[in-house]
Design goal:
Outer membrane lipoprotein-sorting protein, Multidrug efflux transporter AcrB transmembrane fold, alpha+beta, 49% helix, 23 strands, transmembrane helix, transmembrane, 13-stranded antiparallel beta sheet, lipoprotein
């Protein structure tokens, strides 16, 4: 006689279905493994995005405006190296200054770092007043050898307010090297290169005693965060997997019970993460926990299948392989499907409610992975299991053949206790509920990005050290807009910006601010004998315009691009804060917005808050309410799904209560332990729902079967629940709690919190599902369980009805040459130098200056030139626009190499003529991309400065050209010119240069010049168009030459320094 246990009526049809399905098991295995392999092959495409911008929707106005401001002013999140020294002289010692110079030079050579956007005291210029105006010069030309020389540098820096608090600590204890990246994609690699550089400095003895080096900055946080979390997870995840496998071995004591669930886990992760990679969606900071969630859910499904399978084998020893598997699947497919659907509904609800891309991705791809876990559990797992001969588990024995194992006995005792005291159980849970509410009231919504790192992590130590000593590396900025070009020369507008900065520092909570106003006041003081009484805004717009022109006489054209745009219409005020703690920055952001709207803005000038902290506020502010809404929606969908599938509102509510209580307990623990609701913890509600619903659904479904189908009374049903499904749920709990508990040993604080809160969530769901829920059933006696107490009292839900929601979910997811000799080169370049130019020349030159955004500034000039034997004199007068009119540049170019050329610059607003030293000939001329030497030579080259070599032939347009390369004759000349190497493309027929390339002293391609529109004028080959492109800054200069007249009469007095004041007289 067969000792088979009678199947519940609702499972009979399902058993026949799975028996038929298993006839195609090899096809199922092949198809499943093929699909897993295909999705797994996509994992190599998976990218990461750990930047704060990842949380901002693409359509965000705040993001669009921030990007616009960054584009206008060339702003990027930098990395910084800090030198810290608490000694008597701080960082102002010969050793520290030598270290600063060495680090600056080395950082500039790192691939991926923009060498022109490396900023330190070694790159910044001092503005010094002189008898003829102002001089922009480095703080040192050579490394100081004595402390007295270092003290002189300290005195200069401390007298330059713009740098104090921003680039060097006000007490001199720290200074920064700030590096901007060419691409944020290289942030991780560059962070490690900077770390290696600091270690190299230490190994080579370059770090003085008492000094220390630190690497930090917002760029460093973004670059290192992904690697930091990955490194920690790669250490902990294998441990978690091993612990879960050990739990499976203890639960079933069989090899199949330990290995096959792991295969389902692999398949689940492959689909969940592979679909993310295939869709081009990156891994975000919060989605780092997604693989762990998928592992947990996949393991839980497998545990229930194996528990039922071994129970069938134990109770029916004569069952064949397919038969045993089909019977197990017939009983478990329904609760597994119910738990999966409710979990998918919860995650899809969170995705729908979330306004932030990472959370939307989390919800969608968690749902896809969970759906994959369900599919593999109901197809691949039974197909593989059916290949094995049914063997009973040593841990699961029927009472008729022996004593149950310790876990079964433990669960039986617990079941009898719960069944005998439902009222006591409910009172205890009520007490916990009250305590939980108190804890929830203490929960704080807050976030601080640097807290993703352990307190002892060098990057966090560096961040703390730097922000304690300087005025802050966190920026909240104001973008200033005026209607017309050069409106920012108007004193009234500048005064409003000055008042804004004063409010920001006095009342707004800012540690420091910087704007174009500070530079203007510094220049005004410098040209007035450095008298501090003149550290104020001038009241003459023409004088202000002339200050900028005077600065460009020895500064570079891009020196002000971070604070003012090319047309002097847009400005940028940078505000510094020492922390990005949300609760601290929230009142600062709101206060700034209020001041701008109520006090600052008028028709002539407008200000809008922007920057990294403003952007963070824009998406952090609604995160708290979005989290609550998403949680409510997820619970609502879980409730709805439960009501539909249990066909009872009461049972639906009962199935949802353990999950809701688990969420409540998670937030209560957060309140009592001080864990913030922030970016890293905002998804814990989803995790609690996703993992917790398993316990409630399985418990309730089993109770319904025991009470309604097997006609057990309440007490016996509860004991039977504990010893069967309860035992499986216990191992679910052990697997999840141990697996996630390992994360509490993580070096990443958010992962520590993650491990703690998930362990609490699953433990609470387990306990409430097996205690409070049965106790409530005892009190409420819902008719859906106790009504008719007949097997046919409830119409079974068909497979088609259960699969219909999957179809709807699926539709929703779908919605989602040979060389010449050096002599040849010398001859070629000599031919260029000897090309006839006429005795005298007058020409009109239009200068078009174009910034990297394509905005153009146009200037009109007239050029006069006259030869005196082999010596040459040349003067350039500015005619337009008004702010540069009557500015003049005069050169006396002497043929003798032993005589230094003379150069003068006349600035009419100051009524001063400034002599330009020949050593400054590599400086950029008045905001152009031409140096003084370039402007003086134009289409020629000084033969005394270069060693030439012939590099072959090339073609420019339709013209064959000689390629001549040159290197400066000495390092000193290279430093003067600003070039380490050059290449000229020479037309030997006309002896003109058609193109040139120049490399900077670091070996980087600096700029390219094209010499076009070559025509003969009075028999002399004349270039009518010169176009220069700076490859680093994106800045361009074009010279359009017209009205060329050779050999005209020119008065010698025009070329005298004293004549510059008279201006150009046609």
């Amino acid at each position: 006689m067969s000792n088979r246990r009678k199947m519940p009526p609702t499972a009979v049809g399902a058993e026949r279905f799975f028996l038929r399905l298993l006839q195609f098991r090899w096809l199922i295995i092949a198809a499943a493994l093929g699909a897993i392999g295909l999705m797994g092959s996509q994992l190599g495409k998976l990218t990461k995005d750990t930047t704060p911008e990842a949380f901002v929707p693409d359509a965000s106005p705040a993001l669009a405006f921030r990007d616009h401001v960054e584009d206008v002013f060339g702003l990027k999140d930098p990395m910084v190296i800090a030198i810290v020294d608490d000694g008597r002289y701080g960082v102002y010692t010969p050793g520290n200054i030598a270290l600063l110079q060495w680090l600056t030079d080395q950082v500039r050579t790192i691939e991926g770092v923009d060498p022109d956007r490396v900023t330190s005291l070694a790159t910044e210029n001092n503005i010094v007043g002189t008898a003829d105006g102002m001089l922009v010069e480095p703080f040192w030309e050579a490394i100081p050898e004595t402390q007295a020389q270092a003290d002189a540098i300290a005195s200069q820096v401390q007298g330059f307010p713009l740098l104090n608090g921003t680039l060097v600590a006000r007490d001199g204890s720290a200074t920064l090297i700030i590096a901007e990246l060419l691409s944020e994609q290289d942030a991780e690699a560059i962070y490690f290169k900077l770390l290696n550089l600091t270690e190299q400095a230490d190994r080579e003895g370059l770090v003085p005693a008492g000094a220390s080096l630190h690497v930090a900055g917002q760029g460093a946080v973004s670059g290192y965060l992904s690697a930091y979390i990955d490194a920690d997870a790669s250490r902990l995840n294998p441990i978690a997997a091993i612990l879960i496998t050990i739990v499976l071995i203890i639960a079933y004591r069989t090899l199949a019970g330990a290995l096959l669930p792991n295969l389902i886990v692999v398949g689940t992760a492959a689909v969940g993460l592979g679909s993310m990679a295939a869709a081009g969606v990156p891994m975000y900071v919060i989605t780092n926990s997604l693989p762990v969630i998928l592992i947990g859910i996949a393991v839980c499904d497998s545990i229930h299948i194996f528990s039922q399978y071994y129970e069938e084998v134990a109770n029916n020893p004569k069952l064949q392989g397919r038969e045993a598997v089909a019977r197990a699947m017939a009983v478990m497919w329904r609760p597994v499907t119910l738990t999966t659907l409710t979990t998918v509904a919860g995650f899809m609800g969170l995705a729908a409610a979330a306004g932030l891309p990472p959370m939307q991705s989390y919800g969608v791809f968690a749902a896809i992975g969970i759906a994959a876990a369900w599919l593999w559990t109901l197809t691949l797992l039974p197909a593989l299991l059916s290949l094995l001969s049914p063997k009973p588990s040593g841990a699961l024995k029927p009472r008729s053949t022996g004593r149950p194992d310790a876990f079964t006995r433990l669960m039986e005792l617990a079941g009898r206790a719960v069944a005998s005291a439902p009222a006591t159980t409910l009172w205890i849970v009520t007490g916990l509920f009250v305590l939980a509410l108190i804890g929830v009231s203490r929960v704080e919504f807050n976030d601080q990005r640097i807290h993703a790192f352990e307190v002892s992590e060098p990057l966090r130590v560096a961040d703390t050290e730097i922000n304690q000593r300087l005025d802050g590396t966190y920026y909240l900025d104001v973008a200033i807009t005026t209607p017309n070009p050069e409106d920012l020369f108007l004193p009234d507008n500048l005064a409003r910006i000055e008042a804004l900065q004063a409010w920001m520092q006095a009342e707004g909570g800012f540690a420091n601010t910087t704007s174009i106003v500070d530079y203007i006041k510094e220049m005004h003081q410098s040209v007035n004998a450095d008298d501090s009484a003149f550290y104020a805004l001038p009241d003459d717009p023409f004088l202000i315009a002339q200050y900028f022109l005077l600065y460009t006489a020895s500064g570079e054209p891009t020196d002000f691009e971070e604070v003012v745009d090319y047309d002097y219409r847009l400005a940028h005020v940078r505000g510094q804060l020492q922390s990005d703690n949300f609760r601290q920055i929230e009142p600062v952001v709101l206060g700034l917005k209020s001041y701008l709207a109520d006090t600052f803005n008028n028709e002539a000038i407008q200000g809008v808050s922007t920057g990294a902290l403003d952007l963070s506020y824009s998406w952090m502010a609604p995160l708290g309410s979005n989290t609550a809404q998403g949680m409510a929606l997820a619970l609502g969908l879980v409730l709805l799904a439960s009501v539909v599938f249990f066909r009872s509102v009461v049972l639906g509510v009962l199935a949802t209560l353990p999950v809701a209580f688990a969420v409540l307990m998670v937030f209560a623990v957060m309140g009592y332990t001080g864990i913030w609701i922030g970016v890293g913890t905002s998804m814990f509600a989803a995790i609690a729902i996703g993992l917790g619903v398993d316990f409630a659904i399985h418990s309730l479904d089993r109770l319904r079967s025991l009470i309604r189908d097997e006609r057990l009374d309440y007490a016996d049903a509860v004991v039977a629940l504990f010893t069967t499904t309860g035992r499986a749920l216990l191992f679910n709990l052990l697997a999840l709690a141990l697996g996630f508990g390992v994360l509490m040993t993580s070096k990443v604080p958010p992962l520590q919190d993650f491990g703690l809160l998930v362990a609490i969530a699953v433990t609470t769901s387990f306990v409430i599902s097996l205690t409070a829920m049965p106790a409530l059933i005892s009190v409420l006696k819902p008719k859906a369980l106790f009504g008719a107490n007949r097997a046919d009292s409830s119409k079974p839900v068909s497979v088609a009805n259960l699969l219909l929601p999957w179809l709807l979910v699926g539709v929703g997811l779908v919605g989602v040459s040979t060389q010449s000799s050096a002599q040849d080169a010398d001859q070629i370049m000599a031919g260029v130098d000897q090309r006839p130019e006429g005795q005298t020349l007058r020409s009109h030159i239009t200068l078009k200056l174009t910034d990297r955004r394509g905005r153009t500034r146009e200037q009109q000039t007239v050029s006069l030139r006259k030869y005196y034997g082999e010596d040459k004199r040349q003067v350039l007068y500015y005619l337009e626009p008004t702010n540069v009119r009557d500015t003049a540049f005069l050169t006396h170019d002497y043929a003798s190499p032993d005589r230094e050329d003379d150069q003068w610059l006349y600035l009419p607003a100051l009524r001063k003529t400034r002599r330009i030293s020949a050593s400054d000939r590599g400086d950029y001329f008045l905001g152009t991309d031409l140096t003084y030497e370039d402007l003086k030579r134009q289409n020629k080259v000084s033969l005394d400065d270069w060693r030439f070599s012939h590099a072959g032939m090339d073609r420019i347009g339709r013209v064959d050209v000689h390629v001549v390369e040159g290197v400066p004759v000495s390092q000193a000349v290279a430093e003067e010119l600003g070039y380490a190497r050059a290449r000229w493309y020479v037309d030997s027929e006309t002896h003109t240069i058609r193109k040139s390339d120049n490399w900077d002293t670091q070996g980087n391609l600096l700029k390219t010049a094209w010499f076009d529109a070559l025509r003969q004028v009075d028999g002399i080959w004349t270039v009518h168009n010169i176009r220069v492109e700076n490859h680093k800054t994106g800045h361009q200069t074009e010279l359009i030459v017209s009205d060329v007249i050779y050999d005209l009469e020119l008065d010698d007095g025009v070329f005298e320094e004293r004549s510059l004041r008279r201006g150009y007289r046609p």
